[in-house]
Amino acid sequence: MASLTLNPEQLLDLPESPLAALVAASGAAAILETWAPLLPQLTLIGPDFIGSFLNRIEQEKCVEDLVTHGYLAADSSWSQSPRSHWLQARLLRATGKPAEAFRAFEQILKHGSSLPSQFLLDAASTAIESGEYPMAAHWLSLATRYSTDFHLIQKAVRLYRRLEKSGPLDDLPTLRIALLLDTAPQLIEPILKAKGYAAGIHLEIFSADYNGVDPLLFGDRTPLLDFSPDIAILQLNYRQLEDLHKGETPTEWVSRQAERARRRWSLLSLERTCRILQHTCDLPPSPSDGNLSTTAPHGLSHRIHLLNAALLKTVPENVSIVDTQRLQTSDPSQTWNDDRLWYMARQHPAPESIPVLADEYIALARAHLGYTKKIIVLDLDNTLWGGVIGEDGIEGIQIGTESPEAEAHRNFQIALKQLRDRGILLAVSSKNNEADARLPFEAHDGMYLQLEDFAAFQANWNSKDQQLRSIAERLNLGLDSFVFVDDNPVEREWIRNQLPEVTVIDLPSDPSQFTSALLKGRWFEALAISEEDRRRSEIYRQQAERKNAQQHSSSLDEYLAGLQMIARSGPFDAAHINRAAQLIQRTNQFNLTSRRHSKEVLQQISEDSDTYWTRWFSLQDRFGDNGIIGLIIAKIGGSQWTIDTFLMSCRVIGRSVDSFMLNTLVEAARSSNATQINGLYSPTPKNQLVAEFYPSHQFVKGDSVGGETSFQLDIEQYMPDATPIKVG
Fold first, then answer.
1. Local structure of residue 31 (DSSP, 8 states)
2. CATH number of the domain at 560-727, please?
3. Helical pair 150-164 and 117-129, crossing angle rounded to 10 deg
4. Closest to 516 measured CA to CA, from 525, 506, 526
5. Which of 384, 496, 502, 555 is the most buried (most CB within 10 A)?
6. Do domains 172-369 and 375-519 have the same CATH topology?
7. What is the reported pTM?
8. Domain 375-519 adopts which CATH fold?
9. CATH says 172-369 is which class?
């Protein structure tokens, strides 16, 4: 192997895979004589090759020889690219210098985000060795979040296990998931847990044994009830469907299979309602009857399509569908079926598809927790259209149907409008003259988005972080609800460094890939769409009008009186339960206890009026209807009522709505002859805004336990705060 000759000029023209195989077969002599002299070219080949090269020099124990021969000198001409620094950092670690290696990785990651996942895994591993556990968790999340590489995520699993012993994952919110799959759970459980960590969630997982779901549900449910899952996942796959009985029609077969699924739903909801993720049934890859499997009434594929349709027609509100047929075909490079592993270990789907399936679960879990992003902030030039409006003019920008580039940008706008129509806000952040920035919306026929589609429009020469802060203040939204989209990598890195809570999308150079780049993170997943969602953009546009009115008022009292506010309230009922569930999942800033009751739990609470008092609050003013903006749940306990949930939408903060809500609660408690209301403040990173709510509203501070503080209000001594709000 040492006699192998490689031409530096032709090296980059060779495929990466055979080069990786060649270096993997090289001994120490070949590494030093053949590969090391080509280091400037090797670092340009690709991440898979670099990984193979690094693994091989460590296996052959020739790192010191490379150092001795001067190949790894920091001032060498080849060592300025991120991949060169990756190689150097990895070799520093191999020579017993993890702290230096960590600093090298940290320096690289400050100046570049589009780095290979293997690089990020190496960085995370080095951070763990150096005791830099928070950075290890961050880099590991970046490596794992988007990856669908089963083997890479297995490596991440091992690193997460090391981190679990070190503390940086302890503060993540916990979600309990029951895997009820009817197949072997051993491979998916650690992958799902790693994907959960990458999404900022600590998963506790209960797994049923192979073919153990029905015995668990229809027999002794004690282990499952003791676990008390927040989410239960039910699989349905073609390998385990019941046979068509002799004389049974396809319709009868479908009814029998669907009824089995419905009985499972009922049993899971019997003692404690949880969110259920139900697979649709996937399709056999090579049915013996070929096309007849789909076209003939008795064909298996035909019956599976009918079964999936039957399930979709009867899905209760606590069940969300996992579209496995979409996942089965979403990535042609991923193998869905593996007959060998099925017969050997009852593994389905194939290991290569497990990360895709885990991503689907995590997307729905994030929606269940209320982690859906609220707003997309968009650049304009070379993002919403091709070209630069200030230089190319209205005739020169690419948007519409006149070219492939123009059509790609228009289709990106169409996707954004679809997101806007289901409740995701849109905003503009552009370094531009405002008149130039508005011109395409006003004068170009190819534009699909219009000015009225945007809840905020920042076009000036301020820095992008200033623009985003201004949008957040104008709309009263937390920056952690922002998704930032900009074609300029410099601007993206600036936002990452200045506003790390903002999610930044790496746009590819090809505009035809913009939509998939935006959507691959599943930031906008929702379990249901309410009328409030469809009106959200209109509501925030009205918010801007209120802000303008406030700026032109001589005092806060004058502004509030001029709003002419009218409030309505009522107990949780069928007409309002969806919005109540949505609000309780999404509200973070004005939320005293931050309890995340599911819709199903809220329904149970609403039906128990002897134990709970519930109220939704809506607000309208001269600018429009804000919809339902507040909730209270109080537990009735004789002479004492206890606040379980007290929250309010951030868009009505500062309008005395909180005082109006508390007045309503106190009056209801007084009417029931209660003498005291107990409150609890549970601090979170997002609700410091309400830390002084109780003391400022006549509550007396009580004990503090585990970071939570109790408060008491003497109802007889309570003096209602005057508000400019009328009861509707």
1. I
2. 3.40.630.30
3. 20
4. 506
5. 384
6. yes
7. 0.80
8. Rossmann fold (3.40.50)
9. alpha beta
